[in-house]
Amino acid sequence: MYNTPQKLSAEFFGTFALVFFGVGALCANEFLHGSGSGVLGAALAEGLAVAILFTALGRISGGHFNPAVTIGFWVTKRIGTLEVLGYWIAQFLGAIAAAYLLRWIIPDDTWTRALGGTPTLVADFTRLPAMVLEAILTFFLVLIFFSATPNPDGEISSLAGWAIGLAYTAGILVASPFTGGALNPARAFGPALASSHWNNHGVYWVGPLAGGFLAGLLYDAIFAKK
Questions:
Q1: CA within 20 to 30 Å of 154's CA: 56, 109, 114, 171, which one?
Q2: CATH dotted code for 4-223
Q3: What gap in Å lies between CA 156 and CA 31, rounded to an integer?
C-alpha cells in the first residue's frame, strides 16, 4: 500500500505533465506562427503524457490527474471527502507549477499570443453549449477511466493508460476548435492563473465536473459488478 504523500505526489506530477506537455505543444505551435503540429499535436502531446504518466504512476494514486475523475470516484464512494480535497490540491498545484514554469521558459510574445495555453471559447460559441460539450466529452473520458481500471486490488492493465490517453486525445480534437478542449478544471486553472486570462472560466469547472459526476453514477448503476 502507498501512503498519502506518495499518492499526492503522483497526482501532482501526473497533472504537471498533462499541463506542461499540452500547453507546451500549443505554445510551440504559436511560436511557429501556426505552422507546427496544431490541434493534433497538442491533443497527442496531452494524450501521450496522460498515457505514459498513468502507466508509470497509476498504481500509486489511481492516476486521476483530473478533478473530474476524482469527483467521479467521490460520488461512487470509492474515496472519501478528505482524500478528494487532497487530490484536488495536488492536481491544482501541479497545473499551476507547470504553467508558471512554461511562462518562464516560453518567450514572452509567444506566451502572450497563446494566452498561456488557456482554453478559450471561439466567437459565437456561447457558454451553455460550451459547458455541454465539455461535459459530454469528459463524461466519456471518465466512463472510459472507470471501465479501464476496474480492479479494486490495484492491479491495472498495461493498456489502461493508453485507452485513457486516447480518450483525452479524441476529446481534445473535438473540443479544441470550440472551447479549447480542457476536459479538466486543473488544465484550465493553471494556465489561466499564469496568464491572467479568466474569460468564461466557469465553463471549464461546471462542464467537466458535471460530466465526471454523471459518468461515475452511470458506471456504478449500469456496469459495475454487483
A1: 171
A2: 1.20.1080.10
A3: 38
